[in-house]
Amino acid sequence: MPWRETCALEQRKRFVLAVTAGEEPLAALCRQFGISRRHGYKWLDRWRAEGVAGLADRSRAPLRHPQAVAAELVEACVAVRRAHPTWGPVKVRAWLERRGPSRPWPAASTIGALFDREGLTVRRRLRRRAPPGGPLFAAATANDVWSIDFKGWFRTGDGARVDPLTLSDACSRYLLRCQAVARPDTDHVWPILDAAFREYGLPLRLRSDNGPPFATIGAGGLSRLSVKAIKAGVTPERITPGKPQENGRHERLHLTLLQDTAQPPAATLRAQQKRFGEFQADYNEERPHAALGNATPSERYAASPRRWDGVLRSPGVNADEVARKVKSNGLIRWHGRLVYVSEALAGEPVGLAETADARWAVRYGPVLLGFLDHRSNRLTSPRRTADGLVDNAARCPQGPQPPQPQPPGT
Fold first, then answer.
1. Per-residue CA distances from 131 to 4, 149, 250 (Å)
2. For 20-50, how does the pLDDT look when each residue is reduced to its tens digit (9 = 90+)?
3. Residue 218: which region, alpha, beta or left (left: phi > 0; alpha: psi -120 to 50)?
4. Rounded to two decimals, what is the model's pTM?
5. Which of 33, 85, 105, 217 registers the highest number of CB atoms within 10 A of its CB?
6. Contact call for residues 347 and 339 (beta carbons, < 8 A)
7. pLDDT tens digits for 259-298?
């Protein structure tokens, strides 16, 4: 028959009962149960003092913890976490160190353990991600690149639609604008850009995705908004379609914005905008940023020396280029033909320069729109590669076609 399994507590009960029965000496019972006489006396003493409860295992944790974190430090760490639920241990420690540099704040790992103990940690499922793409333009200093985008829309408690527009500096992560707009179009976005240019000066480049109102499928991807940016003195640039990781810094900002201001949304649009304002101040002035050495964006950002007077000026045409003015319908006249360029450039000058392969490159300021050749009256669009812009077999949208000459007598 199989052996019967017993637990240690049951064995100890049997041992002390056998000792108190007095039928055998303690030394013999210790040998029978496989324990030393010292352990036998220990369990017998505990049984006499506490009864059956004294036979249970006791915690081996030390009664004193010389290295334990002081209660006041624990309370301070937990208070910061409760005030900023999306901050991790590293940010909490950096924030505390700036306000109390002489105090012995615990390590970030210890603070993380405190959050676990207090139930303040939310476990996330790990997701496999594609490796990020390379930057379009290296943002080495503040105002080299500004990023602009819409955080996905949502509704407030009363059903109002919220379209948050965000504008940030790619180098310092400074949040320049965080504002809900009535409609995500040029007429509502440009005033916000205009105000940011007047307050902070002009960046070198303005990075966006390929959606409206930042870009179109027309020549050079230009939209009315990007044309205005060029006339203000800023070069627009767009990430590769389907590659949001190329603007990963701004996308990460949107995740923090969602967690801090829209989970759940506010009751009204006015209250939601107030949350955006509070978030912007907190993000710039209070929240440490790991990529900045746990400094805040406001400590790394400075306004651009390129000040703007608010006047939109069309870019000039180089001396080696032939100038043409785009008509209201997006057409230019070239060698007796009408060629469609883009309606976004209506009224603007473009420059044409002959290339080595006997084609004509068409530019608007810093943007290459495409190429013309003698065989067609359509603009061939360039393609972005790792080495720059090269010619592509794809053609720009035709747009309205110019009227074709009719043979005589018709």
1. 58, 22, 17
2. 888 888 888 899 888 899 988 998 898 888 8
3. beta
4. 0.71
5. 105
6. no
7. 999 999 999 999 999 999 999 999 999 999 988 999 999 9
